[in-house]
Amino acid sequence: MCNQSVGLVQRALDEEGVSTMSLTLSASITRRTKPSRALLVEHPFGLTMGDLHDDATHIAVLNEMLTAAERIAHAGALEALPFEWTKDDLRSRQLRKEAR
Amino acid sequence: MKPFADVERDYLRARAVPDFEWETNDEPSRVNRLQVPVSKAPVALVVTAGAYIRDEQEPFLRRKEGDPSFREFPRDIDLARIALSHVGYDTRRAMEDVDVVFPLRTLRALEERGRIGAAAPRHYSFMGYAIETDALRDNAQDLAGRLRSDHVDLALLVPS
C-alpha cells in the first residue's frame, strides 16, 4: 500500500510542477500507479534504504536517486537498482505476506 | 510467482477492504526536470513511514481506512524524537535506526559532502496505508505548496 501512496503523492507533486524521484519496493504496484520516475530497490519493506546502521548502503541508494533525477527525462521510467538483500529471507516472506 | 500487487490486493480484501482495488493510471505523470544541478539544489524528503514527532504531533490513525494526513519535520530535528506509527510494516526494526525509512541523517551527510545544495528546511511523512486516496491527493497538493514556498528543487519519495 505504501508504494501506491508514494506513487499517488508523487503524481500530485508532478502535476504541481515539483521535480520528483521515488523509490519503490514493488514494481507491480508502481506499474499501475505510473508516477513520473521511480527506482526499484529490492530491500525488505520497512528497511527501504538497507539494513540498520548500514550508512554506506543508505548513502549509495540516495546517491542513485540523485543521479537518476539528473539523468532520466522519460516519463514513466521504472529502473531497477543493483542492490540485493542477502541477509535473510525477510523480503521473500513479506512478498508472500508471511512477515511484516 | 504471483505478482506482489495481486498478493497484497487479496490480503487487503480479506482483512480490511472487501472491494479494494489498486488505482491504475493509463499514462505516467509528467517529468519536471531539475532547474539547477543536484549540487546546488535544496532537496526535501517525502516518506510514507508513518513518522511523527513524539510528544508533539499526533500518531497516525491505525484504522481500516488508514490515514491520508502527513506530518512536517524541521531539517534539524533530533532524530531520537521521531516515532513511527504504521499498520503495514513492523516499525520495531526501523525504530532502531529511523534512517532506513526516513533517510534524513543520510541527506544531511550528503549536504555536508556537497553532493546536494542543501537539505530543505522542512521534510514530510505520510503513513502509507491510506485507502482514502482523494484525501491523500488533496494533502499532497497542500504539500506541493509548502515545497514551493521553501524553494525545493527536488523531492525524494521513499516508501516503507
Q: How would you characterize this protein structure?
A:
- The complex is a heterodimer of chains A (100) and B (160).
- Chain A has one domain.
- Chain A is 44% helix and 13% strand.
- Chain A has helices at residues 2-15, 27-33, 55-71, 90-95, and strands at 20-24, 37-40, 77-80.
- Chain A has a three-stranded parallel β-sheet with strand order 1-2-3, with helices on both faces.
- The two termini of chain A are 13 Å apart.
- Chain B has one domain.
- In chain B, 27% of the residues lie in helices and 18% in strands.
- Chain B is built from four helices and seven strands.
- Chain B has helices spanning 4-15, 91-95, 104-112, 133-149; strands at residues 42-47, 51-53, 70-74, 82-84, 118-119, 122-126, 154-158.
- Chain B starts with a helix and ends with a strand.
- The chains are: A alpha/beta (100), B alpha/beta (160).
- The interface between A and B is large, with 64 and 71 residues.
- Strand 1 of chain A pairs parallel with strand 7 (154-158) of chain B.
Q: What distinguishing features does this structure have?
A:
heterodimer, A: 100 residues, alpha/beta, three-stranded parallel beta sheet, 4 helices, 3 strands, B: five-stranded mixed beta sheet, two-stranded antiparallel ribbon, 18% strand
How is this structure best summarized?
With 100 residues, chain A is α/β, with parallel strands linked by helices. Chain A has helices at residues 2-15, 27-33, 55-71, 90-95; strands spanning 20-24, 37-40, 77-80. In chain A, helix 1 packs parallel to helix 2.
Task: Give the helices and strands, then pairings.
The complex is a heterodimer of chains A (100) and B (160).
Chain A: H1 2-15, E1 20-24, H2 27-33, E2 37-40, H3 55-71, E3 77-80, H4 90-95
Parallel strand pairs in A: 1-2, 2-3
Chain B: H1 4-15, E1 42-47, E2 51-53, E3 70-74, E4 82-84, H2 91-95, H3 104-112, E5 118-119, E6 122-126, H4 133-149, E7 154-158
Parallel strand pairs in B: 1-5, 1-6, 1-7
Antiparallel strand pairs in B: 2-4, 3-6
